[in-house]
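Reply to dn_fold:

You asked what the input looked like. This is it:
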Amino acid sequence: MARRRIIDAHHHIGGDEDYADRLAETCSTLNIVKVCLVCTNMPGNKLDNNANTKRAFEKYPDLFVGFGGVNMWEDDGPEQVQRLHDEGFKGLKFIIPPKAYNDPSFYPIYERAQELGMPVLFHLGIVARRSARKIRIDNNLMRPIYLDTIARDFPELTIIGAHLGNPWYDEATMSCRWNPNLYFDLSGSTLKKKTPEFLGGLLWWTPTTFYGDAEGRYAWEKIVFGSDVNWTYIKDVLNDYEQLMDALNLRPDLREKVLYGTMASILGLTDEGEADEVP
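and this is what came back:
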């Protein structure tokens, strides 16, 4: 029987010099065939930045996919997006904005990403508290309901919301159901603190549900695997996903969508696992 393929939609490059090598070894063991390395490109951040991420995906181009961090506090907006695209980044990551994510002043950034065919990942909900932060953090500016507005205004922009909006799960799943271009991962503490029954109750719709998905999909076709942990804990997060899907008796084809298929489609992968050309 062929080994299942996995795509990790949410991972950060660690600060150790050999982190990329260790991560690559772990991915080989777990049959993770692609990893989206997302950046937290903020003032004062010396490790999880675009330069380190670029080095990693240039060293392992068949494994790592770069999601460049956009500094939302700067004024050069779409020019940041174009630079990242030209440097080989395939997607974008947003976190800790000075205004709500759906503020119109950010629209030129999203418009350029849409034009370039770059999927985007938004941090949602509570941000870990770290003493090194040099900017004001307002978690209320990162609520999942803001992605609903963006998804409607940029229907060709593929959007991934992190952490299922923790703690605003209802906002996340309602927005997910109504927007064909909006997806979520379950990284973070959610799988440790929430029961399968809770998550199954949020992700309830099917192709035959009256109040269902706009494109007739199952709710679980909108969920992707994301680890968002050090390489040493990826297997633990994968086990959490597996235990959740076991408890909900999720069908094999939907499990494949969660672990690989949906993200493969987002990244434009062919059956051989290589990405099609993007603009």
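The first strand starts at residue 6 and ends at 11.
Hope that clears it up.
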